């Protein structure tokens, strides 16, 4: 099973970040919006996918900063140490609150729009 990185394709900020990953981070994973993939086949619910980015590989599913850590480690090169660092427990204790803050405020981030703050059902 090849890895898949799932993001919110209806969020302009998330899409901008995904394009950065595709252009700058040489991961072997598929980078796909959750709205355009078979979530059930990946073992991810729409609620999980709407709440945080997801990384799916043979080891299972990871979300939020853990997913980003796995993506960076998969990319290798200078990204790998950053991924390992992000994956350390003390760093994750800080990364999760930061990730949740960004997720709640993504409509205010560069590239974000007012639609980014709405639940999927209202977009």
Explain what the structure shows.
By secondary structure, this protein is α+β, with helices and mostly antiparallel strands. It has one domain (4-118). The chain is 48% helix and 13% strand. The chain has helices at 12-24, 39-42, 46-51, 64-75, 79-86, 89-104, and strands spanning 4-7, 30-33, 54-57, 60-63. Strands 2-1-3-4 form a 4-stranded mixed β-sheet. β1, α1 (12-24) and β2 form a beta-alpha-beta unit. α4 runs antiparallel to α5. The mean pLDDT is 91.
Task: Chart the SSEs and their pairings.
Elements (H helix, E strand, L loop, with lengths): L3 E4 L4 H13 L5 E4 L5 H4 L3 H6 L2 E4 L2 E4 H12 L3 H8 L2 H16 L19
Parallel strand pairs: 1-2
Antiparallel strand pairs: 1-3, 3-4
Structure keywords:
6 helices; about 120 residues; about 15% strand; alpha+beta; four-stranded mixed β-sheet
Mean of all residue-level pLDDT scores? 91
Distinct helical segment count: 6
Helix proportion:
40-55%
Shape: globular
Q: How many strands in all?
A: 4
First-last Cα distance: 32 Å
Q: Indicate how many domains the architecture comprises.
A: 1
Main beta sheet:
4 strands, mixed
Percentage of β-strand residues:
5-15%
């Amino acid at each position: 099973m090849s890895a898949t990185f799932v993001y919110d394709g209806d969020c302009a900020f998330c899409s901008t970040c995904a394009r950065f990953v595709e252009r700058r981070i040489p991961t072997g994973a598929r980078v796909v919006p959750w709205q355009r993939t078979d979530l059930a086949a990946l073992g991810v619910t729409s609620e999980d996918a709407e709440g945080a980015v997801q990384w799916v590989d043979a080891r299972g599913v990871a979300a939020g900063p853990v997913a980003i850590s796995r993506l960076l480690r998969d990319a290798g090169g200078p990204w790998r140490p950053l991924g390992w660092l992000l994956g350390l427990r003390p760093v994750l204790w800080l990364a999760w609150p930061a990730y949740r803050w960004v997720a709640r405020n993504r409509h205010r981030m560069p590239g974000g729009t007012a639609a980014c703050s709405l639940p999927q059902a209202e977009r």
